[in-house]
Amino acid sequence: MLTSITEGILCCLTGKAASLVLPLESSEPSNGFEFVEVKPGRVLRVRHIVPERQPVVTEDQISVHCKRKITVYRNGQLVIENLGDVLHSEILQCQDGDLEPCSTVEVELADYKELASSPEPHPMPPRVPPHAGDQKPAPPPRRRRRKPKRTVLIDSKRAISSCKGTQSDVALFFVHGVGGSLDIWGSQLDFFSRLGYEVIAPDLAGHGASKAPPIAAAYTFYALAEDLRAIFKRYARKRNILIGHSYGVSFCTFLAHEYPDLVHKVVMINGGGPTALEPSLCSIFQLPSCVLHCLSPCLAWSFLKAGFARQGAKEKQLLKQGNAFNVAPFVLRAMMSGQYWPEGDEVYHAELTVPILLVHGMCDKFVPMDEDQRMAEILLFAFLKVIEEGSHMVMMECPDTVNTLLHEFFLWEPDMSKTESIKCDTETKATTNDIVQTLRVNKTVDK
């Protein structure tokens, strides 16, 4: 603590940033670690494990019709109509899910906590006065039809298949968040590489053993997203699965949106709601770097308390082994100030057609449960799983549970055995009903 305060005072006097802006030495340079120069002078450490696997055996892929209409009104109201195949919520158990009939499903998403209400409520007829006698009641006033501010129509086919570790066209990408490193994925990297999966996990700029540029512009969302784009294009296979944690979820969303044909599935671990990123002006991370350096022991203790459900010796050791929250104050301040991504709003997330597994730690103090529930409502194919004994660092606290859940999701594929009967029922309903019925989707959370 005294050392940190002394170094912070020297930092303020000399005007120089703290000394932890250079990459750390890799303790295992030959154990699957690589240093990739994504741009001139911008070097990231990447752990890349390629097990010995058999040639790809072509398997039948299930084609799912992804069609939805996204309408944004001027009052901020968002209405999503699912016109194609919609997966049942039974997939929350990561079992073979069925397909619902091709129908119009309208979901109104107006508030995190309130239930959806109809976008066009029918007005109640006026009360008839007692002395009206035989007079007919006045007709209800006609409601003026609202004009949408923006309408997005998605109509495509997506192939969904089981991704096995023995298939050489499958690759797993793990992306950490602010203050983390690829070491937080240690249990997942070892588990899936033993199952035969090819795994790729980079250190973000300024984190772990990656080089730390001395300018704040190097840590904006767009700069980091371009880094990960270069890593993705370098290691991507035919079917890629993205696994993100916290801030890393935003980069996975970006890549899934940019490369819909290459991203096969996505896992979001404590990633928060589908809202555009905007840095907070009243955050403690807006303080000067030298002050943050003085407060680094307190910040590390606060992260331990908020990031883990328990604060025992085991959790402290996990935090140390995972090299989490061990970044320079300048990097930490620049990362928090650079979280500006206005395009990543609800419509941006609603446009995704890739199957997505949401994992939430019940004891998470950084990401409220309501935000992940909101994300599950917005996404087309979203399956939410809650781990009661986990917190923000759930993949370190409950590695066996997370590994099993992820593996089941990788192997999952929709059950199309009832597709023919579904199509027949849909055609019959289409000929008898001229008015489209509005169905409500109430997604339950498996706790």
UniProtKB/TrEMBL annotation:
Entry keyword set: Hydrolase
Annotated region (Disordered), positions in chain: 116-150
Any one GO cellular component localisation term in the record: mitochondrion
Gene Ontology biological process terms in this record: lipid homeostasis; negative regulation of NLRP3 inflammasome complex assembly; phosphatidic acid biosynthetic process
Residue stretches of biased makeup (Pro residues): 120-129
Family designation: Belongs to the AB hydrolase superfamily.
Name of the protein in question: Protein ABHD8
Species: Gadus morhua (Atlantic cod)
Protein encoded by which gene: ABHD8
